[in-house]
Recover the amino acids of this structure.
């Protein structure tokens, strides 16, 4: 491929990202949550016992905004704050109802992703997943039955679970 044939990755990925983001927002909204509330719940369900600061950092999300999201998730019986060993740190536990909510939203998101990528054969969708895992430097094995959010445009929520931010 010559430099004239090559296109910027963001130019190629941008429309796909926007479609995926709209689908995720819609799926979460239909379940009565914002995309961010789904993302918080999803990360907490995947890695039980994280603090709200750790969840915010993994999502590159505001440490202040997550408080309101957790208040709502707790009021709806989807998550609980539990006192930590030093009483200054709360861990977040996802309730069975919260796990059911994540599973339902995730199934709807995956269905929307399949529809968005329906012009690709199944092997092409699998290859895309594999290449994205490789590009992010992650193992390509599927995650446990749970995942995702970001405040930075162009980066998917929970795209960098190893990221920490100053804050």
């Amino acid at each position: 491929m010559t430099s004239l044939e090559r296109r910027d990755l963001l130019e190629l990925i941008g429309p796909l990202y926007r479609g995926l983001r709209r689908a995720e927002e819609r799926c979460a909204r239909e379940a009565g949550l914002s995309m961010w509330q789904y993302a918080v719940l999803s990360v907490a369900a995947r890695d039980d016992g994280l603090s709200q600061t750790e969840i915010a950092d993994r999502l590159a999300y505001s440490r202040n905004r997550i408080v309101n999201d957790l208040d709502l998730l707790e009021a709806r019986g989807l998550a609980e704050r539990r006192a930590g060993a030093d009483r200054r740190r709360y861990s977040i536990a996802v309730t069975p109802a919260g796990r059911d909510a994540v599973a339902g939203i995730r199934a709807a998101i995956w269905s929307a992703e399949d529809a968005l990528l329906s012009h690709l054969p199944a092997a092409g969708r699998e290859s895309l997943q594999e290449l994205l895992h490789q590009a992010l430097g992650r193992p390509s094995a599927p995650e446990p039955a749970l995942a995702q959010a970001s405040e930075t445009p162009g980066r998917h929520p929970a795209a960098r679970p190893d990221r920490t931010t100053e804050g």
Observations:
- The domain at 14-135 is CATH 1.10.10.10 (Arc Repressor Mutant, subunit A).
- The first helix runs from residue 9 to 30.
- Strands lie at 79-83, 90-94.
